Amino acid sequence: MYLNDSYQNNLRDPRFERMLTRYYADPNEDYAIDPWDRLYNRNDCVETVLFPELETEKPEVAQVRHIIEEKCTESQQDLIYKYFGERKTLTEICKAEAQKTGRLPTLTAVFNRKKKIIDKVAKSLGVKRENKLSKSKSEQDDTDDAE
After folding, report:
1. Other beta carbons within 10 Å of 117
2. How far, in Å, are 113, 138, 140, 147 from residue 143 at the CA level?
3. Is 135 within a domain?
4. Is the domain of 75 the same as that of 35?
5. pLDDT tens by residue, 81-106
6. Are residues 73 and 107 both part of a single domain?
7. Whole-model pTM?
8. What percentage of residues in the chain have a pLDDT greater than 70?
9. What is the percent of the chain where pLDDT is above 90?
């Protein structure tokens, strides 16, 4: 009803009428814009505007989500969804776990739990997790050889 009222009011608007006349006189000009297009995108139907399509999930993301939901324990899922989803640091995660369980986990324990999750996902995707320690050692060896 709003669009219908808008169309009816614009038909009686002299400014809108001038814009419409100018557009129909030379619609191929670079600056020419159909005045009706300014009111409403005629390519969109009401259903599209009210219920836009959800983005389709990429297959790799769906596979990772499936692995986390099916093959990870509840504490591992909490670690991913709750803590890392909130962008908490390992120290903040340890404090939150201490409040939740009553005992303080070590940073190493939380870090190892994170590595296990990454290893599960990497294995299912057919890749290998890169170890930062071995990478830094190999980089040091490369710089020593260059000298």
Report:
1. 20
2. 33, 9, 5, 6
3. no
4. no
5. 888 888 888 888 888 888 888 888 88
6. yes
7. 0.48
8. 69
9. 0
For residues 66 and 29, state if they share a domain: no
* Length of the chain measured in residues: 147
How many domains are there within the chain? Answer: 2
What's the pLDDT score for residue 58? Answer: 83
Residues 68 and 23 in one domain: no
Give the residue-averaged pLDDT of 66-85: 85
Q: Which domain holds residue 98?
A: 59-130
